Amino acid sequence: xxxxxxxxxxxxxxxxxxxxxxxxxxxxxxxxxxxxxxxxxxxxxxxxxxxxxxxxxxxxxxxxxxxxxxxxxxxxxxxxxxxxxxxxxxxxxxxxxxxxxxxxxxxxxxxxxxxxxxxxxxxxxxxxxxxxxxxxxxxxxxxxxxxxxxxxxxxxxxxxxxxxxxxxxxxxxxxxxxxxxxxxxxxxxxxxxxxxxxxxxxxxxxxxxxxxxxxxxxxxxxxxxxxxxxxxxxxxxxxxxxxxxxxxxxxxxxxxxxxxxxxxxxxxxxxxxxxxxxxxxxxxxxxxxxxxxxxxxxxxxxxxxxxxxxxxxxxxxxxxxxxxxxxxxxxxxxxxxxxxxxxxxxxxxxxxxxxxxx
Amino acid sequence: xxxxxxxxxxxxxxxxxxxxxxxxxxxxxxxxxxxxxxxxxxxxxxxxxxxxxxxxxxxxxxxxxxxxxxxxxxxxxxxxxxxxxxxxxxxxxxxxxxxxxxxxxxxxxxxxxxxxxxxxxxxxxxxxxxxxxxxxxxxxxxxxxxxxxxxxxxxxxxxxxxxxxxxxxxxxxxxxxxxxxxxxxxxxxxxxxxxxxxxxxxxxxxxxxxxxxxxxxxxxxxxxxxxxxxxxxxxxxxxxxxxxxxxxxxxxxxxxxxxxxxxxxxxxxxxxxxxxxxxxxxxxxxxxxxxxxxxxxxxxxxxxxxxxxxxxxxxxxxxxxxxxxxxxxxxxxxxxxxxxxxxxxxxxxxxxxxxxxxxxxxxxxxxxxxxxxxxxxxxxxxxxxxxxxxxxxxxxxxxxxxxxxxxxxxxxxxxxxxxxxxxxxxxxxxxxxxxxxxxxxxxxxxxxxxxxxxxxxxxxxxxxxxxxxxxxxxxxxxxxxxxxxxxxxxxxxxxxxxxxxxxxxxxxxxxxxxxxxxxxxxxxxxxxxxxxxxxxxxxxxxxx
Lengths: 358, 544
Fold this sequence. Notes:
The complex is a heterodimer of chains A (358) and B (544). The longest helix of chain A has 38 residues, at 21-58. The two termini of chain A are 23 Å apart. Chain A has one domain (87-354). In chain A, helix 2 (21-58) crosses helix 3 (74-83), helix 2 (21-58) packs across helix 14 and helix 6 packs antiparallel against helix 7 (155-186). Chain A is 70% helix and 0% strand. Chain A is built from 15 helices and no strands. Chain B is of the alpha+beta class and 544 residues long. In chain B, 38% of the residues lie in helices and 19% in strands. Chain B is built from 18 helices and 17 strands. Chain B has helices at 2-11, 30-42, 103-114, 226-230, 235-238, 250-265, 271-299, 304-324, 346-369, 372-378, 386-391, 396-401, 408-411, 432-454, 509-514, 516-520, 525-535, 539-543, and strands at residues 16-20, 23-28, 50-58, 63-71, 76-83, 92-94, 117-119, 161-167, 173-179, 186-190, 202-208, 211-218, 333-334, 337-338, 475-482, 487-494, 502-506. In chain B, a hairpin with a 2-residue loop joins strand 11 (202-208) and strand 12. In chain B, helix 7 packs antiparallel against helix 8 (304-324), helix 8 runs antiparallel to helix 9 (346-369) and helix 14 (432-454) runs parallel beside helix 17.
């Protein structure tokens, strides 16, 4: 398997050759920041196009097909449109918090990008509490949504923010529980460690029953966490017009919009990390030739492919199911998902302790 | 008739009974009206439990109301004419809100247009016009000059108060101010511009967290004064306004008004025209129910369903377009028959439609009705009991979902409906799911009617000769038809001229919106959307 750290190491040694070490680190940070922003923007554009085509297929439509070949340039056109839109400033709002909120939301998803296992050796930071860091930073997003709803001084946004606060804080529990379940199997919280643990067999097969339960809980809670249908209550357009971001315009609205898609990618990316090996190719213990062939597919392709397929499932949810009601959403979490998650954690612990896994 | 006369003489000797348009019409003075109304509703042999509509009138020397009542138990109907007391500055009548819940809204409408005050009605605000409107438009001496009511250029005026005229124990009537919302209520404006109100309707919703405490339905944003306009147009011209009321039952409404005029003028139309009219009615019923399902599911967040239902609706609109030349405002039925003959491919197109319908209905059931989230959102939400449905005058599929067999095609058959085989769908649950399922099943029944007629369209003329300028004799008529959303009533008063002296339309959407407050108390905000969507009201239909 090609280790991409060769490239990063080469860049590092090239820079270190004629720069003091503090400058090297600064330049690398800038490079990574630019690369991350680029990846962020491109992924968002891709996801907008992907969802449009996907839902069009479900709804017997064609989807975007006029701008560029197969409508490929549609999301670029929309992006430019949203960039040149006026940022409408409103009276009687908390101006500072109103402006801050979209940046908090986008910040949360950008920070989460830092620990995703993009490829073999292609990881921005790999430290021993990686997955914990990810859970922590992704919770900043709810703060932005709450601030957006509160500072807009609008009753719809307030109700939207209230719903989102209740929903995201609740589902955070299930996400954490299923993550802990998988950490229990991996024995490490380092993202790189979790991926390497799956070198012989992905966790979804290795952990069998508890892993599958954890995967289902994770997907449901992850959908709720990204505020997507059928859990899109914070912005339920038929009830609250646009929920917490009703009053936003221009690129500030665009940030919420992008963050929604990127969170979709992050949730799918973490699912692929925890259950499907991150960038790790599909390996079957004992089938050495097969495993070797699989290694020829680049690790970045593996990771992106898994993330896109898994986010496809979440998109599929949205275009199939009607929306839940707030009491049903909360009942589902507190009455079903969390107790099952706790039980599942115990089950996984037993499996690990008694060695009932592959 | 004779027994009714005796009965009424016993209950209220002051009342007289005459026959108007084949039905009894009781005339009573204001002092005895409320007692008579109570007796009419509560008497075992009469039990007039359904108030169809209240029609205000202004005969220059007198003003008053005609109440149309029906008995769901005995299948009888009658009218009551009551003249208001007091002079034109403040005519008064006793309210019957305590007897029929829907009377509250109907009385507000009469107050809005005629200025008749209803004593003891707890909410005597204008219903459609803005609160600072000067004059009462349907009075014969109304001055429509734009100087009196200029087009407003500033913000809409609104008030958290309403007035009520209350009769004390000594019989003295006093005006009182009442609060609609208290200063501590958290009132959210759902509408007039809102994706789920299906038009410019406004629910002022007092909420406690996510729970709804009270809803004040605020309508009139699409009020165009159709009844007033009709008084200035010749009879055939009035037909065209009906397209603009419930635009999804345009053909059904046209059919009804044509029947009314033909009855009044004594015109017999050909059988071919009758069959064509009924087929068009049923086609638009399927299209309307398809649209309902699509938009309702979209309200619940299941966006994809809209495309599946619109697929069928498109096919129907194509059929209608080929014959009527339009997809929305058809203007197809006219006095004496229909505007033009059927398209050459009409039968073929309808058969094609009938072929694809069963598969589509099966798909709707599979995609939506069986879905666990849809079940949780709809079952047991907004339960309307049969008694409430009748008292609130909620007809059509909504009433039938509550177990009230109120299909005018069966109840008061018109045109060729008595000859046709079809079932009246009723359910007992009365919740949002029942309202959805009734409509789904009604599509099947409409398809059944089409199947019976598609090969049996008789030859003949589609339009009989009628005078270009229609002149109706002096008299009063009342006609009911089944629109896509329920009972559509028309009251016509003619002074022998070429224009109606008074034409009143009683539409099914007004009671459907009026009952929303009753259904949503204590439910969640999301349930308001479910309930509002399942009632399937059309805003231009209620505002007229």
